[in-house]
Amino acid sequence: MTTQATPKTNSDEAKIRDNQGGTWLYSNTVKEHFFNPRNILKAGEEAQYESYSKGRVGSPACGDEMVLWLKIDPETEKIIDCKWQTFGCGSAIASTSMLSVMLLENGGMTIDAALKIKPQDIMRRLEGLPNRKIHCSVLGDKALQAAINDWFRITGKHDRVITQGAKVIDPILHITDHDIEEVVLEGAKTLEEVQKKLKVGVASPESIPEIEQLIRFYSEKYYGGE
Amino acid sequence: MSFPQKPETKKLVYLDHAATTYMDARVQAEMLPFFSDHFANPSGLYAIGRDANGALNDARRKIAEMLHALPDSIIFTSGGTESDNLALFGVARKHAKKGKHIITSAFEHHAVLHSCEALEKEGFEVTYLKPDEHGFITPKQVHEALRDDTILVSIMYANNEVGTVEPIADIGRELLKWRKEHATPYPYFHTDACQAAGALDLDVEKLHVDLMTINGGKIYGPKGVGILYKARNISLQPIMYGGSQESNVRAGTENIAGIVGFAKALELSQESKDMENKRLIELRNYFWDKLQEKIPKIRLNGPSLGDEQMRLPNNLNVSILDVEGEALLLYLDEYGIVCSTGSACTSLSLDPSHVLLAMGLPYEYAHGSLRFTLGHTTTKEDIDYVMTYLPAIVERLREISPVNLQYDPKANTHAQYHQR
């Protein structure tokens, strides 16, 4: 475990049992942000924030959806206001709340600095998240990038829009490295598990060594190579 | 809506009886002497061993009577999972020469489903029948899936998540007819009755089953003990090897205290089931009426709230749109309300409940599902307590949710999606 803080054991922490017999812990910080989310935009008040740039990721079918609204000072390029809405589990709500706090503290973060926020940074501030929940903090990071891209487009800075250069791994099914990253985040750890979700490499076995390499790479990135 | 205050003394409202039950005090009293007074190994030939063996056989006889079976058809195991494994692997491996095809449903408990997946790797073929939108498997479906090489059919008696009670006796009759027409003893018929045991009739003659799983931890008995009923004429390949206990089918020194407790628990739950069913159905229906009244966009999952022949009396499974199940669960836990969810966020695979998906429920409904299962201690006050908090919790989570699904109670399809 190198990438995440180990949650402290404390009787106040929420212990949730999953439906397959395991338990996990939420840190007190996660609980605090879950029960008292900061900077939320209440449903029905969206019209007041029309002028803000906006980023949306996920869908209710995936189980997580986030929308982030940003007000950016065009002179300093600092984020001076940030609002959000999240459909998702406790850690998804807490991650977005913590992200909004990080963006606004010390007079607001510049967008260049904001774009450098990694999922691990949010997790560290939350005093850790259970492995299978890392997924949730990554969504916050992606919503932020989408909202900043929106601002680049609104302000005509099209050259600064960040497009992720996805690399096609399985030419038959047109599966990219991002798709593999997604399923590793969803908990797949072996080629077999990745294939169960993606069928990647089934029709093009020559791509399997590269797929295995990517699984190792992303497992290490998000789970510290356990 | 102003948020209701927390109660001064923390209350526990346990609504997860399908996960497991607390133990009945009468069961515990029955078990206690067998931990240190009557501790002997029933295989011992000395007096105290014979006493232990007597208790074991009494329990076996008592259980057999309740199942309308012979005592030597009761195999004691470590619980529902082991019984399911023993039934599936035991039949499959022993009778593989007669055929390698198995029929089950797509929404069985994982103890059955994962055993089937493992058997597929051993070269067996498995047909997974898809339940209808209410969770029913029909005898016709089973009949249509039958093949000359089908050796085993395994269909649960009642579903653990949505409480659907399957037409086991009808399926059993269908299989009897097939066997007669084809002059074969196959396929054998297994049912996982773990969820049903506290509420339904367990007469194996009426159900026409050859194998049946029951465990203690769901009927106010001890955890870690269960039985597999096995018709006398069926032979099973053991899944663990050792001593000759349980007619050479299940090795290991018998868990006497657990077995005695299990027999008592089964006796108590069978005796009280008619009255308890009636009480739970009333409470459960009251709960659903209140939920519908106070929470907009809520959907009942599973069969309609009929009698216990249709749906388990204690089961209520609902989807609350625009909010996610784990977030609801976490909030409810803060107020001492315990239930479970089919949301992806509580599973290792991050896929939502396989039961709800098998019934054709859209993903976005499955993510917002909550299962409440009532039991012995549940009172109307408990339900009223839940109703003090749940509507406010839903409102609060909806306030911060960007999702606003349009709900059509008639259509079990993907909800119309509206972006804010």
SSE diagram, text form:
The complex is a heterodimer of chains A (226) and B (420).
Chain A: E1 14-17, E2 23-26, H1 28-35, E3 53-59, E4 64-72, E5 79-87, H2 90-104, H3 111-114, H4 119-125, H5 134-154, E6 168-170, E7 175-176, H6 177-185, H7 191-198, H8 208-223
Antiparallel strand pairs in A: 1-2, 3-4, 4-5, 6-7
Helix pairs in contact in A: 1-2, 2-5, 4-5, 6-8
Chain B: E1 13-14, H1 25-31, H2 33-36, H3 47-67, E2 74-77, H4 80-94, E3 101-105, H5 110-121, E4 125-129, H6 139-145, E5 150-154, H7 168-182, E6 188-192, H8 204-207, E7 211-215, E8 226-230, H9 245-248, H10 256-294, E9 298-301, E10 315-320, H11 325-334, E11 337-338, E12 340-341, H12 354-358, H13 363-366, E13 369-373, H14 380-399, E14 403-406, E15 416-419
Parallel strand pairs in B: 1-11, 3-4, 3-5, 5-6, 6-7
Antiparallel strand pairs in B: 2-8, 7-8, 9-10, 10-13, 12-13, 14-15
What tags apply to this protein structure?
heterodimer; A: 226 residues; alpha+beta; Sufe protein. Chain: A; Arc Repressor Mutant, subunit A; two-stranded antiparallel ribbon; 7 strands; globular; B: 420 residues; alpha/beta; Aspartate Aminotransferase, domain 1; Aspartate Aminotransferase, domain 2; seven-stranded mixed beta sheet; 40% helix; disordered C terminus
- Describe the biggest sheet of chain B? 7 strands, mixed
Number of domains of chain A: 2
Q: What's the β-strand tally of chain A?
A: 7
| Biggest sheet descriptor of chain A | 3 strands, antiparallel
Please summarize what this structure is.
The complex is a heterodimer of chains A (226) and B (420). By secondary structure, chain A is of the alpha+beta class. Chain A is 39% helix and 17% strand.
Task: Summarize the structure in words.
The complex is a heterodimer of chains A (226) and B (420). In chain A, the strands form 3 sheets. A 3-stranded antiparallel sheet of chain A has the order 3-4-5. A two-stranded antiparallel ribbon of chain A has the order 1-2. A two-stranded antiparallel sheet of chain A has the order 6-7. Chain A is α+β, with helices and mostly antiparallel strands and 226 residues long. In chain A, helix 2 (90-104) crosses helix 5 (134-154), helix 4 packs across helix 5 (134-154) and helix 6 packs across helix 8 (208-223). In chain A, a hairpin with a 4-residue loop joins strand 3 (53-59) and strand 4 (64-72). Chain A has 2 domains: 14-160, Sufe protein. Chain: A; 168-223, BFD-like [2Fe-2S]-binding domain (Arc Repressor Mutant, subunit A). Chain A is 39% helix and 17% strand. The termini of chain A are close together. Mean pLDDT of chain A is 82; it is low at 1-11 and 17-22. By secondary structure, chain B is of the alpha/beta class. Chain B folds into 2 domains: 13-22 and 273-397, Aspartate Aminotransferase, domain 1; 25-269, Type I PLP-dependent aspartate aminotransferase-like (Major domain) (Aspartate Aminotransferase, domain 2, 3-Layer(aba) Sandwich). Helix content of chain B is 40%, strand content 15%. Chain B contains 14 helices and 15 strands. Chain B has helices at residues 25-31, 33-36, 47-67, 80-94, 110-121, 139-145, 168-182, 204-207, 245-248, 256-294, 325-334, 354-358, 363-366, 380-399, and strands spanning 13-14, 74-77, 101-105, 125-129, 150-154, 188-192, 211-215, 226-230, 298-301, 315-320, 337-338, 340-341, 369-373, 403-406, 416-419. The longest helix of chain B has 39 residues, at 256-294. Chain B is globular. The two termini of chain B are 22 Å apart. Mean pLDDT of chain B is 94; it is low at 412-420. The A-B interface holds A 14, 16-20, 22, 26, 34-35, 37, 40, 42-43, 46, 56, 59-67, 85-90, 92-93, 132-133, 135, 186-187 and B 110, 322-327, 329-331, 333-334, 340, 342-350, 352-353, 362-364, 367, 398-405, 414, 417, 419-420.
